[in-house]
Every structure is written in C-alpha cells, then in structure tokens.
Amino acid sequence: MTIVADGERGLISEFGQTNPIPKQPGLVRVNLYLLVQASLTARLSQTLQIVDMKTQVFELPYLVCKTRANIKVHLTPVLYYRIVHVMDATFKVASLRHALQEHIQVAIQELLRQKTQEQLATRSTGLRMETIGAVKSAAQGWGIEIEDILFKDFGFEKETPTSNHVDNTPHGVNFNIIETVNHE
After folding, report:
1. Which helix (H) or strand (E) holds 101?
2. Residues 178, 180, 182, CA angle at the centre, nearest 5°?
3. Could you tell me how far CA 180 lies from the centroid of its own chain?
4. DSSP string computed for 69-87
5. By 3-state DSSP, what share of the chain in percent is helix, strand and coil, each rounded to 5?
6. 94 CB contacts (<8 Å, ≥6 apart)?
7. How big is the chain by its Cα radius of gyration, in Å?
8. Residue 128: which of 103, 157, 107, 155 has the closest Cα?
9. pTM (predicted TM-score)
10. Measured distance between the N- and C-terminal CA atoms of the chain, rounded to whole angstroms
11. Tens place of pLDDT for every residue, the chain, 184 residues?
C-alpha cells in the first residue's frame, strides 16, 4: 500500500503498460510481486509513479535579446505552470521543463525582435500575455496549463556615448539600465 498525497496523482504501470486512469489522493494498492524472466532479469509486476499537480515555479536562464532597433534587452523569465492531464505530461514529452524552456526562450526572442524599446517600456504586460499566447497550444498538447510568466531583472542595455543611441525610456517606468563598453 502506498499513499498518494493531496495535490498529487498516481500512475500505475503493470508489466510496462500504464493504466490511463490516474489514482486520486488516498491509499493506493500496488502489487509488488517480483517476477524473474527467462533472461534472469527481475521485474516488479506493478510500479507507481507520483505526479505533482500543484503549481510549479520554474526560473528560466538569463536571456539577452535584441529589439527591432537592435537594443539589447536583458531579462530572466519566471514561469508558473501546473499539470492538468497526467498522462500527456508524463508521456508526450521526455523532459517537460526542457521543452518549456526552449519554447519560451524562442517565443520571447521572436516577440522582442518585433518590438521597440518604447513599446516594451509602456506595455510590459502585453509581452507577458503574448508570450503565454505563443506557447499555450504547445503547453496544452503536453498536458499543462501556463498560469503566468513574469520577467525579473528586466532592463535595456545602454551603449557608450560614442554611439548615436539615446535612451528614451518614458519617465515613471522603472527599468534597469545595464551599461556596456563598446570596444571598437
């Protein structure tokens, strides 16, 4: 007997075939008969895989992307998601977090290439919603729901005075300006 806690579901596999109906929280009976096959390998008759259904928080790696005007944007995306379909999340993609990370990074890069610095400064919520929209269909196919995505350490790169770039961030908007030295 094994306990499946609140906020979790259990998948029982019998001889390698998974029962598509997940076990709800509570006491779950798992047969642990040891089978020895002709090739002298031992195998349990049933195994239980626990899947966490609670909201997961996943901080993606630090990103540096360029806007339409070639201004570098620095940000760290933080993803909030939860599993809604246990079988899909477990068996449709080998590494769920890695797939989410790659998909979100590409979506953010493509969205930022279409934006100007002013658009990002005045409508940062729009970028969040557009990113969620860009990855929503893939996420649903993998059995998860994206609840939110936040951008921490969001900032524009300010070039040295030798360039013609002017930082025109609207007043009242709080962004980090990251200074770099242009060695040309």
Report:
1. helix 96-113
2. 155
3. 30
4. TS-EEEEEEEEEEEES-HH
5. 25, 35, 35
6. none
7. 23
8. 107
9. 0.73
10. 69
11. 888 889 999 988 887 788 888 888 998 888 777 666 666 666 677 888 889 999 999 999 999 999 888 889 999 999 999 999 999 999 999 999 999 999 999 999 999 999 888 888 777 678 899 999 999 999 999 999 999 999 988 888 866 444 444 444 443 344 444 444 444 4
How many degrees, rounded to 5, is the angle at CA 152 between CA 145 and CA 77? 40
Which residue type sits at 78? V
| Domains in the chain, CATH or no CATH each | 2-52 (no CATH), 56-179 (3.30.479.30)
- The tokens describing 66, both together, are 């360029």
**What letters, b where the CB count within 10 A reaches 16 and e where it falls short, cover 125-163?**
eebeebbbebbeebbeebbbebeebebeebbbbbbeeee
